[in-house]
Fold these 2 entries.
Entry 1:
Amino acid sequence: MPDISITDNTQLTADLKISDTSAFSFAKLSSLKFSDLPVVGDFQKPVDQTVIEHANFGMRLDSPGLLNGGAFPTGVEATVTGALDIRKASSGTLFEDDGFSPQLLIRPGTCWVGLDLQLAIAAKAGAAAQGFGVEVEGDTVVGVGALLRLDSASGSLPTLRDALKAALERFSIPRTVEEIRKQPLDTAHTAEIGGTVTFSGSYSVPINANALASASLPFNYKIALNPQATLEVGGSLALTGDFIIRTYRTSETELTLGLYKKKGTSIEVQFTAAAGVTGNIDATDTDLAGAVLGTIFPGIDPAVAGFTGQQAEALAGALNACIDNSLATSINGSCAASRTDESAVVYSINLTGGDQTATDKVIAAALRGDWTLLETLPNARQVRNVVREVRAKSRKIVINLLGFYNAISVSEYVKSCEVLRDPDGQVVLVDKTSANQLRAAGAPKLADSERLRAAIGEGFLTTATYAAAAAGKLALKDFTVEQTYARYAAKMSVEELRRQVRLGRALKLIGDGSLDTKIAGADTFAHAKATVEASYDLRGALRLFFADPSTRAGFSRAQLEKTGRTAKIALLDPSETNAPARIRVLNDDKLWAVMGETGNVAAFPTIDGLRRLSTTELGAVAADWTDIRWWANAMLRVAPQLAKVLQTIESSTATDPTTDAGFMRQRKALEDILADVGKHTRSAFGDGWGLLVMFRLSNEAAALEMDIGWNGVLEHYVSAAKVATALGAS
């Protein structure tokens, strides 16, 4: 038996002999030094009476490659770092409870002792590196752990010395099916490693096509699209991140095989789609783009319409990025607990049931990083599978079609547009001139968020105006206009998340106090996303512009600005920086009137009530005033001209008002106003405030739908009007 020299940070020493047939004997373990705790002094104590729970060490291995099958660098001397772990009955369970996985209870009179080692894998050993449950490329470090249950004999547990000896002698790294099958009931193995795991299957991706108009004539309400669609895509998911793989028996026949996302980390998701074809489709292929456009625009062949080459590649790339974002948000959200390693895929496998050859094939595939086949194994019971979960709750992809209603035809629109992607996970189709204005600096395929919000806000206001104008003799029945809002962050602050909740409360979707418990206690929220859709029918569109649609009496400036001010207040948290000053000013009718009479933010520091504000407070107040003033001015200009257009339609004898010269003159005047308003659209209008202020101005005429999710929480809210609309459609 080899002698192993044991030392600790107090310079106490001891010798330990281990079996010649153990893995550490083959690896020529010669010394073990504990760096942070006085371990040797506790050697004679029963293992459950030592205060040691986690002790770091370095160990000298003269042949580390022999530790397990040559997976690690061979022929060199190496110091391997690791830790001794002792889990006592007071811990309750061997692993933290993730809410899903079968637990290994630590009963009174037992404890678990284990070794965790950090081992280097060389790139040249790529093939040998398989077997840990993930696919690994290049040099990496794997943390391998083996835990052993110890039981009391003659009323007491083994000494710490004997426990360490047992842990060293029974240490192993099971990386093959045969080794997994031989794993004893009283052991558990872990592997902590960064890499990729893959899954194959089909996924339903909901799509919302938000069609918007520009100020330019014509407003072609006759062209149609399918605004709500679901794209069925088959393909593979590659999940890359830091994982923990656990294997242990819960009985003589039941093996638990689990894949866990490491606590506090995020998973990157890459989706490789095969949409309606065989084989894989990546971001440079056009099939996915064609499938999506064919779904949105029934009867249109994008290739025939001229949507080919770089256009198709750009849309495929944007869609793939959005699908990646959608699936990554859902998968990280499904396993994003903050206090433990989060289970992603866990199966309980009956090793004696079913076809043994098939069982071995499935386990071997999982050890290589492909976890797909576990779903098909009859003797495997799913404990948890977030990939399956995400199929049932994929996040919606919004495709904003800017300028759609100004196109001569769907084919012309498809042919002439360019594709951009929004950082919040949306796709934008827009004409080439507007695309150049919306691009983010240095990122030709990405939209600038602020500019895009302004463009979408302008598009909604224009579309709503034209829709209201079309409500005369044209008598459109099913036409709707939609205002959308989206916010996404891989890590969102508690302040930002609370803003999303306040928007939901202001829209009367989220109840007061709701979600407070779920938000409490965390500073940041992983993969947080909030989306809102507000849909107006033609009647609702008229109520956006007229206090009394029957008489077309418009709103006064006082009414508009009061609505804008109360909407701003509803979204402010009094505890946030500058918020108290903003709320005070927004609530002060007299002060607001003086600001309006002054009409120049540069002169605001001279106004009583504003003099004592700090520079940042004054800047925030000025921004509020500018947003509200712009919006009120826009509504005051648009509404009277819209009334003239409607009056002209009613008095026209033409079957088609667009052939009436008088109508077209009034409509051109409306276009000119909208074009001028659009030049000065504030990005705040494309944000949550713009959606809320229009909802309140319309006397809550919109049908609303909201999703908000983070850290595994996914909440869906629907207004009564939305439910009624859905029931009517069915």
Note: The radius of gyration is 32 Å.
Entry 2:
Amino acid sequence: MDHTLPIETLSDEAAKAELATLARVLGDANRAYHTNDAPDLSDADYDRLKARNLALETRFPHLKRADSPSDQVGAPVADGFSKVRHVQRMMSLGNAFDDSDVSDFVGGIRKFLGLGADAPLAFTAEPKIDGLSLSLRYEGGVLVQAATRGDGETGENVTANARTIADIPQTLMGAPDILEVRGEVYMSHDDFTALNTRQEAGGAKPFANPRNAAAGSLRQLDAAITRARPLRFFAYAWGDLSSPLADTQMGAIERLGALGFQINALTARCDTSQAMIAHYRGIEAQRATLGYDIDGVVYKVDDLGYQARLGLRSTTPRWAIAHKFPAELAWTRLDEIDIQVGRTGALSPVARLAPVTVGGVVVSNATLHNEDYIAGLDAQGGQIRGGKDIRVGDWVQVYRAGDVIPKIADVDLSKRPDDAVPFVFPDHCPRCDSAAIREPGDAVRRCTGGMICPAQAVEKLKHFVGRAAFDIEGLGAKQVEQFYHDGWIREPADIFQLETRYGSGLQQLKNRDGWGDKSATNLFQAISDKRRIPLARLIFALGLRHVGEVAAATLARHFGTWGALIGAVDQAAGEPAYAAAEPKARKAALPDSPAWASLTGIDGIGDVLAEALITALQQPAERASVTRLTDQLDIQPAEAPAQSDSPVAGKTVVFTGTLEKMTRAEAKARAEALGAKVSGSVSAKTDLLVAGPGAGSKAKKAADLGVETLDEDGWLQLIGDL
């Protein structure tokens, strides 16, 4: 589901569906993080989805779910530990992501308390430790219970394990009779590295990051295992108390330190939001050298009387907020720049890095995007990184923000080697030596070798057998590479000739490593089974530039058959105006071309995609290869819409202007479900124009052509939705 659509455009039905998806995704993420110690979402992605959920609930309060993620803290406890019910709930924290959020937080506190801008108001600022929350209960100065946060109300009893942690005192002198100390269990970077070395030496799986290692160690059923793990503990809060620790947050933290707990030396008292942000910047600058993981700074109102007045929301205190760091950054050395060639011929530079841990993940590669990016330029020719280029040997700053491939943010010129030279981007393909051309306005340089380029050929073949394409069982990326390098296949059509071309193909194949009679027979049968293929899968499998799954399905739905699609492409390409115009001028040269409009008029298919279709399928070698393939296939026409008896079945509909009762996406989906074709432009083939407020040139053109025009209510009445 798309979680980026503007919330104001969503209908109740769409918002309800998205809230259900978010409840499931965030619930799974909570269980993965808190219960299983194996997070499957980055912090950045989790925070983004949770903020989206809250924004939806604010816009649609009547749709808030009983299991709303906004009302949840942590996750249920795992099996294997007894349960502990917290006397005072262990809360979560609201998040701030930039300086304005911090100013808004302070302003909101002043407004709630009725304090003027000049009235004194202090806060504490402390590092937010990336570990596992733990609550320690002392009675009469003796540790009697330790519990994880769990879901905030009920946690796991890990008392025996907590007693093995050196930073946790077993007894206290001078403490209140009842004292519940709260803090974070963590593992230092050095201890984490040493633990993983021992894990690997013993044949065990290494931990992904220090947080996972700490959580997994604390939650061992055998306390002896926990004792052998180097866990540490910072105290920063409290729960149930028989008497106050102090009058202020800072005073209470210092009291915990005096009782024998480890408190963070970077905790500071700040009198203004500017001082809070300055302290945040100072901690951020030290982050890489602290020796333990943090992911932000926590601000808390210092006056405990004010904290009591401010109180709590359902899951977060009003008097505290976590100012999260941006995507984690790390510095490392760039050892090499490799050029990879993709299935469309794009030359993609990749940075080979000295391995470095970024956000708990070891990174050794990063994308360099294109030659302009390496040179320190953006797509418009302006400077990025202050115009600093990237060279082999440079120290570079790497970041991740939930991205699969890390990126480079900056270069430290003070560490640049004296012999470092500017990187020269190749103008010939490193795999086949064909010219690598960069067309005007394109940021990417592309190999012109086509299928003679082994890199392109292999990547195209891998794409062809992919899950969303032909999905031939037993023929994956590894087998494609093997068959290509052995000369068995050079293009997709060769796959369907394997058994015929090699009369003894079965015998030859079964004698190869990893193959036998059964696997070879199964492969040939799987290939035969895929001769019958839906049109949309075929279009996607061809690997044409700009044609993804959605575009392939749209083309299949619109044209219905392979012959109709190829006919439209040939007709558009055959128009004199098209052939005569320069690529960038074709849109202007063909404003009234029915053939061009038959492609570009499809809703979701624009000029760029239409141009890519024509360019690929009009190249003689490419076209011949496609024809050799389609001659061996039974291409299934796109399925006819289920509701063929609707009043708009088979008609071409165009939507324009602002729709007020549904989004454009909803209107399109509804029309297609009723058997209509939705186009993005008005032509003589248009049957119906649905025009909302703000309709412009499309409404005028429809009037000139005599196309029937309805307003939104008229459309809804026609299809029976009003």
Note: The chain has a mean pLDDT of 84.
